[in-house]
Amino acid sequence: MKKVSVVIPAYNEAETIGSTLRAIRERFFCDEVIVVDDGSTDATSDLAKKWADLVIPTPTNRGKGAALQTGWQQASGDVILLLDADLRESAGEAIHLLGPVMEDRCDLAVAVLPKPKAKAGMGLAKGLAYHGIRYLTGFETHAPLSGQRALRRELLHRLRRLDGGFGVEVGMTVDALRAGYRVMEVPVAFHHRETGNDWSGYRHRGKEFVAIGRTLCRKWWEGQAWTRNG
Question: Which InterPro entries does the annotation name (predicted)?
Fold first, then answer.
């Protein structure tokens, strides 16, 4: 039986981390739960300790990619389940995301979430990610930015270092496909906090767009270097 490790990056998620972890513990079995507290200034770490096997605090906020890198390197599972901290009770639906990897139907399973209740932004970041992944790999994805993922540990060892910041999911997908791993998208009824149509929401999506663009440019350059070197 494959061992499962759950890795959750968290930044100032005191309002959600408790219900997210409780749902994981109560709804399906996993061998360990690791929370990486990415420089939170609230009670995220203290609340996570009630449910997690390991809480790793960092002195500063380094970004999602760095937090995930720290978490999976401490995990001992054969399958790593990456989840966001704000899923609350819907985190229990992760059992449906685990299935395809546990049954060896794919190496990386990516959750496709239900459509949001209200449209936020213009879809520029998602569109850039979709077209960039398709251009670099030929793969057409429905959820290029989904952070809810289950994958074989071997894949992470092959990738070695994840891309930083908001480009981590796009970089992971491109690298996995280029390395010949099987990627599957799975509809899962996750629900998480949605960014609004206010200044904070547009600022977040602007940072996301820039980070995705940088990641795609780096992946294009890496592909060119690989081609030149044979």
Answer: Glyco_trans_2-like (IPR001173), Glycosyltransferase_2 (IPR050256), Nucleotide-diphossugar_trans (IPR029044)
